Amino acid sequence: MRILLVEDDLAMQHSVSKALDLVGFVVECCSTNQEGLERIKYYDYDVIIVDLTEDTLGEDLIRKIRGCQIDSPIICLSSVDKAQIKVGVFAAGADDYLVKPFASVELVARVQAVLRRFHGFSESVLKVGDVHLNLNTKEAAIGDMPLHLTGKESAILELLMLRKGTVLSKETFLNHLYGGMDEPEIKIVDVFICKIRKKMQQVGLHNAITTLWGRGYMLREENAMRYPYKKRDAQQLSSSLSMEAD
């Protein structure tokens, strides 16, 4: 997931970026509201985090973001803990408001929560048909069968699930995985998708990820195991897949 952080304090930039990076988010930082607005116009972000100071208590900036027809979730950070300020920011279009100082784990939890709600999920475990993914532990499963994925494979599956039924281009996957930094060849996306499909097929799920030639990949909202495994088969097959993933 790609996040834009608008924060003029370099120490806070570093702290927030580090906390989000540790759980797999790609964070881009800028120091001014104007720079943030320029980036928003040209790049897509899954979440926008805005620091609100005493001088920019937020409503104007939030309205400008929404005025650009950007519907990404917005989280405001502020040292101001006043009800009227919060009400104004929410009315302008913000999705959450976090008062400083805060624990990094709380910020991460709030980012994950607004992402889930934005994409229509109410729980930390994403479920699309037989495909399950725990956003907190990054553990995946097909029905009762664990699906052993690498970090990059898990990130791709997360994006596919959050945008289920939507065709995603290879460029979208690269931005999601690398955020424009040290990106490998675009063919790496095909490699990751191929590996995920193979692991799904090994536990009985076929054709869940659809290829639309020239456009990208899509996770079908309706998918079902072609030949569901019984729970007593799970331990043996899970052990085999775990060895392969290692």
Automatic annotation (TrEMBL):
Domain Response regulatory: 2-115
Residues annotated as domain OmpR/PhoB-type: 123-221
UniProt-listed SMART domains: REC (SM00448), Trans_reg_C (SM00862)
Matches recorded under PROSITE patterns: OMPR_PHOB (PS51755), RESPONSE_REGULATORY (PS50110)
Organism for this UniProt entry: Entomobacter blattae
Gene Ontology MF annotations: phosphorelay response regulator activity; transcription cis-regulatory region binding
Gene: ctrA
InterPro entries, per database record: CheY-like_superfamily, OmpR/PhoB-type_DNA-bd, Sig_transdc_resp-reg_receiver, WalR-like, WH-like_DNA-bd_sf
Top-level taxon in the UniProt lineage: Bacteria
Biological-process GO terms, alphabetical: regulation of DNA-templated transcription
DNA-binding region per Swiss-Prot/TrEMBL record: 123-221
Residue list for modification 4-aspartylphosphate: 51
Descriptive protein name: Cell cycle response regulator CtrA
Any one annotated GO CC term: protein-DNA complex
Keywords: DNA-binding, Phosphoprotein, Transcription, Transcription regulation, Two-component regulatory system
